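debug: dumping io for the single-chain case to check the tokenizer round-trip. Nothing else runs in this session.
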Amino acid sequence: MSTRVPLWFVCAPFPKCGASTFTRLLVDYHLFNTRSLSLFDTDIHGQTLENFFPDLAQTIDLSTTPGQIALFDRLLEPGPQARIVEICAPAHQLFLSQARDIGFFEEAEKNHFEPVILFISNGARVAIEAGTRMQSIWRRVPVIPVVNEGFVRLGTKINDHLDAFPSGRSFQVPLLEPLLKNAIATPGFSLSGFLTKPPAVDEMSLVVRADLRSWITRMFTQFRSHELRKALDESNYLLKS
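debug: decoded output
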């Protein structure tokens, strides 16, 4: 595996496309695998991540200079822990312009960090154009599209949509049935904790428990596959060198 410290940026240019659900899954994947991490949320109004990770999430206001320092400087502080940032729709353009102006991604690479942009798509052509434009600005940073099928319904066209991005990689969050969606909506509900110690039968139906476990596992498998593919790519690069 790479010795570079991962920086995950969940970028949501469009509202209500399931970005926070994806971020929760990514955070809980790290927690389930007992990995240390820092978590930043740029949604100063909703503060969704604080509802589920009150001891971990830090809310950042990118419209202020102290907020910008709190995010960009702290992301590059020495330390082995992964860093996960959710860039909400209102802060998206602000983040892009600030990161470009200060040369953030170039500085991150020089300091042995490994940034990845997880681009939450709304399923429209405009998302493909925005993701492609972002990749052209930061050619060395993977821009990986994500479609949350609970919010964006593409049906059989989903693969065509994801293949139109330049990445060659993607994530798909499976549709979550309303009953399961309600089950995980309670503030403080931990997806990683659920896998480690499922609720008792009198607290959650066996059927709901099995379906929820399947949904979480499908996403964790995608994250694991991404890591294995990245490790294989790095090994092939070293062999060719």
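debug: round-trip ok. Residues 206-240 form the longest helix (35 residues).
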